[in-house]
Amino acid sequence: MFLPTLVSLLLISASTAVTARPCVAFDSNWNLLAFNLDGKDWNASAQNTWTGSGQASDITTTGRPSFDSANTTCFLSQYTNSIYVLNGDSSSPSSVYIYDATTQSWSTQTVTTGSFDPSSFDAILDHDTNVFYALSHDNLFSLDMGLLTAANSTALSWVDAEAAPYPSNYQPVMALAQNHIHFLDVPGVPAGSADIFVIHYSYFQPQSQAYPLPNGSAFPATYGQATSFFQPSDVQQEFAFIPQDSSAVYVINVETNTTQVLAGPTYRDPNAMYFASVTALVQLTSNGTVSFLPYQEGNTSVNAAATWTPVSVLASVAPPSTATASSTATGTKGGASSTGTSSSGSNGALSIANIHLGLTLGAALGAMALLL
Known about the structure:
Structural class: mainly beta
């Protein structure tokens, strides 16, 4: 009888673990939506209900993508109250999947890629024009979504807008504010600064823009995740930058050219994704834990004291695939200091990578025990 080795079981477990990629987004009424969490789609409703004793509503329906790509990303088209999903299905990586949040229905928009590489890019969806801008390798591309709330029969096309002034190995960190694309961690650009592409003029500014903290320090020049805070109806003015080490959250205001530093996430996951509404920053970890940091634009004292909280109405219907914060977890939630550095070298955070390793090893050992 064939007995699989521990290594083969680990490989099977690891390959199974990465076949599903959930994502989170908000609709235009600021209901939190979680797609493919525990294999289903959920509406967690408004922020004031997230920590209650209720449960999120199941909104799973036909026509949805499989969410089996490693780079699935969700975007809110605020004017159309639609969620656009890029890389939602490995069988059709070029398609854009559209979720109409008003009718709660899915459709699939065919897209011609040309020289755009759907396996290697970062993108933003411009608020006013409803156009995607994506940096793929060393070129900037655009994809005009019009005002689509459902797919049409005519294929859309990625357009090669222009060459970007960055090396081909630049791993982009892109954020949207005031119809400008901000590029972080650009080679040669100092910490606390960003390069800017002006969308309406299709123009890379020749000089970077600094966004210092009140004490003169700066957010780090490092890779991470970025997401914009929405306004109730107007263009975004702020975006959050979360370094890959999850040491802090930096909120950059492009109106005042300043940065404030907030508490880093409780769960330190380099593969986490983030999405912001008007009043919250949401983290979705790779094991399905959803947490949020409340936010008030302009209220620096309240924001500095804010802490991360699990979205319990999602956890009650779609429990994370591993243990979340438990009584056995050591350390405390790390806060960010006024200097822009973490108040604790480890941020008091739980490492999702280590949790995953323990889960995978445990599953493999369990499977071997059954086979034996």
